[in-house]
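Ticket #4471: complex job returned nothing on first submit. Input attached below:
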Amino acid sequence: MKELLQIGLQIGGYSLALLCIGSFWIPKILRWKEHLNDLPPLMRELWWTYSIYIWSSHVFFSVLTLGFGDWLMSGSGSAIAMNTFMLLWWSVRLYLQFFGFDFSEITKNKFNCVGKHLLTLLFIGLVTLFGGLVCWNLGWL
Amino acid sequence: MNRELVEIGLRIAGLILTGLVLANFIAAKRWDYAGSLGGTKLIVRQIFHVHCAYIVAIIAALALISLGWPSLLLEGGFSKVFCAFFSLFWLSRVIVQLTYYDRELRRNDRCWDIFFLGVFLTLSFIYALATYYQ
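Support reply: We reran it on our side without changes. The output follows.
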C-alpha cells in the first residue's frame, strides 16, 4: 500500500502541476474578460485577486505533493490535518463539478469536452489519493 | 525569542484570522456582491462565489490550526515551508492592496485601508517569525 500511495503522490503532484499550467487557458475558454466588463472595478479586482490566490494554493499543493510525500505519509498530526484539508478541498470541487457549476454556457467543442472530462478524472483521482492518505495516516490501511 | 512567545503570536494570528473570516461576510454585504454580480452570467456568479468560499475556507482552516494547535506549525521540516508560504501569502496581499486595488476606493475608506494593511502585515510578520524560530 505504501508504494501505491507513493506512486499516487507522484501522479497527483504532476497532475496538479499540469492543472496549474492549464489554468492559464481557463479565462480564455470561459471568456472572463468579456463577462467581467460589466462588473464594477472592485468586483473585477476581487475576481482576479481571488483567482490568483486559488491558483497559488494549487501550486502549493503541487509542491507539497511532489516534494513532501514522506511528510504527508508520516502519520503526524499536522500531516493528518493537511491531508484532511486537501481531501475536503477536492471533494467539494468534485461535488461542484457534478452538481454545482452550470456548464451550459461554455462553448461545446471537442477540446472543452475533453478538458471537462479530464478535470473530472483529476478530481476523482485527487479525492481518492488524499482519502487514501488520511486513512494511511490514521492507520486504517 | 522562545517557542512559547511564537506560539502566543500564532494564537493571536488565529484570532485575527477569525476576524478576517467574519469580515468576509460583512464585506459581501457592504459591497453588495450579489447585486454587483446580478447582471452577469450564471457561471460567472458561481465561480465568484466558489472562489470566495475557498478563500474563506483557507483562512478558517489556518485560523483553526493557529488558534488550536500552534505547536503543529513549529515542528520543523514541512511546518517551516507551511509558515513561509503563509508569510508570503499575507505579504502578497499587502502588495495587492497597495498596487492593484482602486486608489479612489481606498482613499474613500482610508481608515479601513490602513487597518487591513496593518492586519495583513502583522499576519505576514507572525508567520515569518514562526518560519524563522523553528
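The two ends of chain A are 7 Å apart (CA to CA). Closing as resolved unless it happens again.
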